[in-house]
Amino acid sequence: MDDYISPKRITKESDSALAAQKPRKRLSPAFIFTFFILFFIWVLLSGKLDLFHLSLGVISCLLVSMLSSDLIFSSPEMQKIPAIWFRFIQYLPWLLYQVFLSNIHVLYLVCHPRMMDLIDPRIIQFKSKLKSDISLVTFANSITLTPGTITVDVSVYGDFRVHVIDKPSGQSLPGEMETRVRKIFGE
After folding, report:
1. Beta-carbon neighbour count of residue 41 at 10 Å?
2. What is the pLDDT of residue 2?
3. Which of 17, 37, 113, 138 is deepest in the core (most CB within 10 A)?
4. Which pTM was predicted?
């Protein structure tokens, strides 16, 4: 009779074990990120900045964020998105500066009296250290955004073929741009 456990005791013990295992709800980065994205869209689409409409927007966005943030950011990769966006925003000024410098270089080539001697189009090939698809696409688009270079082909293994307008335009590839893209995606 000593080994007998009542059903009430099992239920109480299993309930307390389940309660101990349940994670507490707290303000996760996914919740905060979802809220701010939704609220930004709310303000953008409503166009109303008075207290009544903003408070409705906050309540609606809080509710939707509570219900859906764990659905949107369920995988570990998706939970890194706020940090990736922050690092990408830091990358943009550098990229715009590179676009500006490339514009100056192409302007110099076009306006130079010996333009035909300076312009030497070619296709260069290199292997990138980037692994994920999104980082490869970001790198390829960054190359294409800078005047004088166009990404012709990218393989899933990181093999790049890039058309450059002259030899100096291709000398910096992959270089610092690849390093900065690797930093964005934490590779």
Report:
1. 12
2. 52
3. 138
4. 0.60
